[in-house]
Amino acid sequence: MKQEKHGVLLVNLGTPDAPTSSAVKCYLKEFLSDGRVVDTSPLLWWVILNGAILPWRSPRVAKLYQSIWMEEGSPLLVYSRRQQRALAERIPNIPVELGMSYGSPSLAEAISKLLAQDITNLVVLPLYPQYSCSTSAAVWDGVARVLKGYPCLPSIRFIRDYATHPAYIFGLQQSVERSLAEHGQPDRLILSFHGIPERYARLGDDYPQNCEDTHCALTATLPLSPERVMMTYQSRFGREPWLTPYTDETLQILPAQGVKHIQLICPGFSADCLETLEEIKEQNREIFLKAGGEKFEYISALNDEPAHIDMMQQLVMECT
Which of 242, 253, 288, 291 could form a disulfide with 195 if both were Cys (CB 3.0 to 4.6 A apart)? Predict the structure, then answer.
């Protein structure tokens, strides 16, 4: 009888290999070609994507990446690698690999490394606290495609979400309380989640409920009255309606309502990336201040904070 051996696959979205137009174009083409992300008619979408979006969007997005690029590389990959190494140190007898749904390191590369170590039980941890068909389900699809090439499959434990896991909420609580101690209590604490099309929710995606559950669980731990904590959705794409209220529009109107000091955290992002460091910390800060706001503090993602690694370790050990 083969001895049981566990392995862990951490998965995040992905990032370009370099802050250049060509690298961004390659990444966006893979990302936006996934039917889980964009479910338009494939033929029509191919024409739109290759004829309009990629030629126009790639140079623009490359400039945004250049503004946040770290010495070690893309922030998302830098922090994800740190998470992988920190978790591996916590569980030295269990191999831990990192794979991205799009770009490098690929899911195929990460799974190959794990199976080469003769694992019999695979724990898949998508680093999306709140499930969505466009993120967590896309990870499931990607893992399944890779494993089709192997005759002998490991047992799989797939962590669908952890929106209210106590260790996750505790990590968020610590981050917010550090910010409160440093900057004082804001007029509003905003929890900004990545948006999805409203249509996905109507079709059964429970992502909005997951976000609301995180919002309620975190608010209950904070020294702020519930009415001072609100949630919004960011990063919409395309013309169809997405989940509301939109973060940027909310920041535009809050100063006129007497809200002059906000702190903002993005609980759905396990690692800082373009959407947090450039869109929120820079663009949305500017929107708020130009509208009459006076103080704006962005609270970093959990990244490789010890409390975040504690959470990952707990999630893995609950599956082994």
Answer: 242
